[in-house]
Fold this sequence. Notes:
The structure holds 2 protein chains of 2 kinds.
Chain A: E1 18-28, E2 34-44, E3 48-53, H1 59-66, E4 73-84, E5 90-96, H2 102-112, E6 113-116, H3 128-132, H4 141-157, H5 173-185, E7 191-195, H6 203-219, E8 223-227, H7 231-234, E9 239-244, E10 247-251, H8 254-272
Parallel strand pairs in A: 3-8, 3-9, 6-7, 7-8
Antiparallel strand pairs in A: 1-2, 1-4, 4-5, 9-10
Helix pairs in contact in A: 4-5, 5-6
Chain B: H1 7-15, H2 18-41, H3 47-56, H4 58-93, E1 98-101, H5 106-113, H6 126-133, E2 138-150, E3 153-158, H7 160-167, E4 172-173, E5 181-184, E6 195-196, E7 199-200, E8 216-221, E9 233-236, H8 237-243, E10 272-277, H9 282-289, E11 296-298, H10 300-343, H11 345-353, H12 358-399, H13 409-425, H14 427-435, H15 438-443
Amino acid sequence: MQAMNGSDFMDEGSEPHAILTVKDLQVRGEKDRLLLDVPQLKIFHGQTIAIKGASGAGKSTLLFALAGLAEHMSGSICWSLPQATGNKEKNNREQDMVKLSSEVRARFRRETLGMIFQDFLLFEEMDALANATISNGYMPGHNKKAVQQRAEQTLRHLGIKDIAKRTIASFSGGERQRVAIARALSNDPPILLADEPTASLDRRASDHLIEDLTALVRRQHKTLIVVSHDISLCEKMDRILEVTDGKITERNDREKQNRERQGLNQGKEEVGS
Amino acid sequence: MKDFLPLFMLDLWDALSPFMQDSLLFALYLMPCIMVGLYVSHGFRPLPLVRAMLWQFRWTSLMFIALIATSVALGVGLLAQERGLRQGTAKAAEKFDLIIAAPGSEVTNVLAAVYLQPTDLSLLDGKLYNEIANHDHVSFAAPIAFGDSYQGAPVVGTTLDFLQHLSGELRKGRAFEKPFEAVVGSAIDLPLGSHFTPAHGTGHSAEADAHEGEVFRIVGRMQPTGSPWDKAILVPVEAVWLVHGMGTGHKPQEGARLGPPFDPDYFPGTPAILVRAEELWANYALKSEFTRKESMAIFPGAVLSQLHAILGDIRSVMSIMAVITQILVAGGVLTGLVILTRLFSRRLALLRAIGAPRRFVFSIVWSFAAILIGAGAVSGLGFGFVTTALLSNIISERTDILIKASLQWPEFHLLAGFVSITILLAMIPAGLALLRPAIRDLRA
């Protein structure tokens, strides 16, 4: 695995580097049903992007397609990542998820992507550190120490280093998701994909997690693509993509988002009164 | 094994010690699963995850292990028990070179003379006895007389020659020197110097007071022989005849003399004569010579071989059944594993989602199955041994034939073959786990 940090993605000119270019992407499901139709999408390095939409609209399908996990895809999903060479030249390495074999996609994911899931998907019987360093099971030997160090560091940043040796079964939802984040970051991936990371948490735990996640991502210059219904989370993102019936629209108007938030708060007050 | 070796390797194979041959065969049987294991897990560390999954599904895993252990124990136990039985019966008969009895069933005669099973047999007369006893090639010929018992132990009349042949040096005391002295088998719980009066007959129908007033004194104890004779009481054959009012086999004027020669006119008859030849080859000549109209000569070993052949046939049938059981259990376990992999399919999907190589995911499922199979097989070996030991004790208790439970190479070969085949088959659930769509499992 070639570790990459944020500066690797900074182009010489003022133009930000498009880390992802999606063109004419179509994902089909059973009986050839069109699940997702994305004519064009660009995501730049270091951006934080929220994908929102109604249930079943295709948000998670988009996320899984970007990770190369979806089947029956057409079009292209090109990840463009700089590849460090011996003399420190940076050549962009383009990987089209649609065309790659499943094994190459898997390699891409383990080298480039960190993934976070709604219900954590942790090994309950293992301790937090073992979960966070799960990739050491298949990583080449020389990377293992770095993975261990990064996992410990992330657990410390997320405030759970002291309980890193406790089994997950004794953890709260917020703590579990922190372990999942540490696991996602243990390989130092430039890109984080998160599927409803706060959906299984209560409001307070969600807010804490959002703070920690965004701070961590910004500090480490990661690109974050997160599927979420959580308005608090969405409003902290640089861009918001809305998925409706498999089609994507970009929403830049913070006003509407604020209106939604006000409406939600008003609704809560009405329910409260 | 030799059938599969090329000619030039046959000499090499034959030059190896039996231990080396068995060890090599064992390693050869295990080789396929070791090779697969090395290939599948090369460069990976699947065990922490496998351990976690084993712990999470510990009860299900234990059930699988128990199932595998039972089927392995069945196969192992069958092999060990049959061998123990064969060796035990052979050892019990090894002191009996040749038996000459009245024509009838060879098996019945062997059961009566060697294994002291009560039965009614026709008697041989004194003339024939003397002909045998005086034969040039005969070292000794011992008439036996049975039918009495004491506290369930058969009281067998015989001669000093046979007693010495059977026991060698006595463990305690001395041999009988007078008609009403007795030597007990090693497993008889009667102290030296104690007295007893035999009952007429054996078992529940024995008449305790039929020989009232005839008191025997125990003067010696035999070495263990591993045969039913360990639970017998040996007395001079003359005493048995005497208590039954049949004389002593000697002329009255000869008094209380023990042992041959016997007088044909006073010889009451014996159901069997135990013959020891001067030389091994002479047994065949004696067998030929005394297999005639009024007598038959039997090699107990040959009769046992026939019984063992039947036992072997039964073993073969049972082995086939055990193998079928093992195949069914292996099939059941593998089907169970396919179902079980569905239980941890989300975790496997997670691994695939975070980019774990397919071979790593494969190695997790395969290692999980291999550990269950390995643990089941080893437990089955132990379980089979313990069961065999218990069964051997019960059989020894009931037949007085010493059956020793032991694990030997055939059991290890069976185990290695079973483990190897099932572990290879475990690649099926591992492969099927990879075919599952990761997204569907992640969303499950």
